Amino acid sequence: MKQVTWMAAGCVGSWLVAALLFDRASELFLGMIGPLVAAAATWIAIDRAQRQDPSRVTRLLMGALMAKVLFFGAFVVGVSRVPGLDLGTFGAAFFVYFVALYIVQAFLIRGLGVPQTS
Fold first, then answer.
1. What is the pTM (predicted TM-score) of this model?
2. 78 vs 11, 27, 42, 83, 107, CA distance in Å?
3. Which residue in 48, 57, 93, 102 is deepest, having the highest Cβ count within 10 Å?
4. Residue 4: exposed, middle, or buried by beta-carbon count in 10 A (0-12, 13-18, 19+)?
5. Hey, how many other C-beta atoms are within 10 angstroms of the C-beta on 117?
6. Higher-confidence residue: 117 or 92?
């Protein structure tokens, strides 16, 4: 859960900075929240599966991929129907947060196999 807190803090912090710099807070927020929700939900499920039965993690990741394809499809279509929204800004924010969060998640998953030292 600590990892989800750090992901959320990083996203919200960067969104606040970007919202202060640019006059597109709504687009930036929507571009951030979709990838954050998907990454957080996936990591919570991975963390739980790892603790219960590590052999389930790969199967869970495959199922999560299919669920995220459906989620992101519906999310992007829903956001694109919001009147007055600058889709270019939303798309750029969505892309940046999507890539950043999945790089973070890749490193977290890689760390699952590394023994933890106290």
1. 0.88
2. 21, 13, 21, 11, 30
3. 93
4. middle
5. 4
6. 92
Place of tokens 């890689």: 110
For residues 24 and 112, what is the distance between their CA atoms, to the nearest angstrom? 37
Q: 76 with 87: CB under 8 angstroms?
A: no
- The predicted model gives 7-24 an average pLDDT of 94
Note whether 24 and 91 are within 8 A (CB).
Answer: no
CA distances to 11, 38, 101 from 80, in Å? 21, 18, 22
Q: Tens digits of per-residue pLDDT, 4-15?
A: 999 999 999 999
Q: What value does the mean pLDDT of the chain take? A: 92
Predicted pLDDT at 112: 78
List all residues 6 or more positions away from 6 whose beta carbon is below 8 Å from its beta carbon: none
Cβ proximity of 109 and 47 under 8 Å = no
Among 28, 75, 79, 88, smallest CA distance to 11 is for 28
| 10: nearest Cα among 32, 43, 27 | 32
Structure tokens at 115: 């023994």
